[in-house]
Each structure stands twice: as structure tokens, then as C-alpha cells.
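Troubleshooting log. The previous structure file for this entry was overwritten by mistake, so regenerating from the original sequence record. Sequence copied from the archived sheet and checked twice against the printout by T.R.
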Amino acid sequence: MTPVQSKLWQLLAQPHWRCVHPERLPLAPRPPLAVAQVRVVLGQGKNLPTWLQTDLLHALSLSETQFQIIDETEWLAQQQPNAPVLLGFDLTSEQQAVGWQGHLPLTAQQKRELWSYLCRCYFAP
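Regenerated output below.
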């Protein structure tokens, strides 16, 4: 398929084949992106510190596609999309869908609670 045919195929939402070696078929339709394993919801106007994002990515062995940061207003507008691990920082109100909530900068107690929550999600039987 040419790139135009491939995009048209995707636009029409036609079923497409799965290839074990996609590098061999550069013009084949791309497989869908992986769903976020960890979604971080940030309060309005807040930014996640780079050190915390790096720590989470390394500790949980996640790729960039498995880790999503989303603003609270956007998250609410999308009707609160879920993820296996849903974290909230500086949210304007308590959200039941969020697995763990805290405020930045994290206190020692909040860090312990966060890592405990992540260990339960990832390493508990």
C-alpha cells in the first residue's frame, strides 16, 4: 500500500492485518498505540516535576507511550478515562476514580503512600 492508501484504509476504519515484523512493511497501516498504563491527572495550571516523572518511568519500567500526563479539565471533559494506575496531583476536588491523590511538593508521608500504592498495583499478587 502507498502512504495515501494506508491513511485512507485507517480513515475508513477497515480491519487491518497484524504483522510480526512491521519494519518489513513500511507502508502497512500502523497498529493502534498502546493504552496508558499510568495516567497522571494534574490540577489546573500545575506541572509534574521532571524528577518525579523520571523516577516513575524508571521505577515502573514504562515507556513514554505507557505514561500519560493529562490536565484535570481535559480529563473531566473526556469523561474521566481510566487506566490501570490513575494518580492525581493538586486536584481541585476529591475524585473517586483516582486511585491515589496528593499535593505537590510531596511530603515524606505522601511519598511513602504513593510508593506503597504503586507497589500494590504492580507487585502485589
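The domain at 38-123 is CATH 3.40.50.10220 (Rossmann fold). Archived copy saved in two places this time.
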